[in-house]
Specification:
Strand order of the largest sheet: 2-1-3-4
Radius of gyration: 19 Å
Shape: globular
Number of strands: 4
Distance between the termini: 36 Å
Order of helices and strands: EEEHHHHHE
Largest sheet: 4 strands, antiparallel
């Protein structure tokens, strides 16, 4: 069963810097919208979560860039994954970092699996595991739906 999570990104028109607010599972709207703060634009992003991994552990040829990077420089690919999770670039040098990144990805997107499966994938098939996580992050990012709403001056909302 897939669950939708909603992430709101507020853009300040003066600075154009996004502020992200993560919310739990999407719920029905029970309040009427109110007029937004002048000078701000609201973008709502809907991300589909749940289910299985989008690709298998050994589906390395599904994405050439990830395949070559995972084959010739897996540490670079792992640094890219770490930066996606907001970690520093030296994160992959720490013991257990790949395991933590895989679990973090699985938990973030509510992918079915167990710690035992993650441990086996990371410790028995390390480069394949890194490639699978990178493909998953790329595929989940491409499934991001944004709904743009800018309040009009003519709106007479409560």
């Amino acid at each position: 069963m897939a669950v939708l999570h909603v992430r709101r990104i507020l853009l300040d028109e003066e600075t154009d810097l996004p502020r992200t607010q993560s919310h739990g599972p999407a719920q029905a709207v029970v309040k009427q919208p109110v007029r937004g703060t002048p000078g701000r634009t609201t973008i709502t992003a809907i991300v589909q979560t749940g289910g299985d991994w989008s690709t298998g552990l050994f589906s390395v040829c599904r994405d050439r860039r990830i395949c070559f990077c995972g084959l010739f420089c897996p540490m670079c690919l792992e640094c890219d994954i770490a930066s996606h999770h907001g970690e520093c670039l030296c994160w992959p040098l720490l013991p257990g970092s790949t395991f933590a990144l895989r679990i973090g990805t699985r938990e973030r997107y509510k992918i079915r699996g167990t710690l035992c499966e993650d441990w086996l994938a990371v410790h028995c098939c390390w480069p394949f595991s890194i490639c699978q996580v990178a493909r998953e992050l790329k595929m989940r990012a491409s499934r991001l739906y944004e709904i743009y709403a800018a309040p009009s001056t003519k709106d007479n909302l409560i």
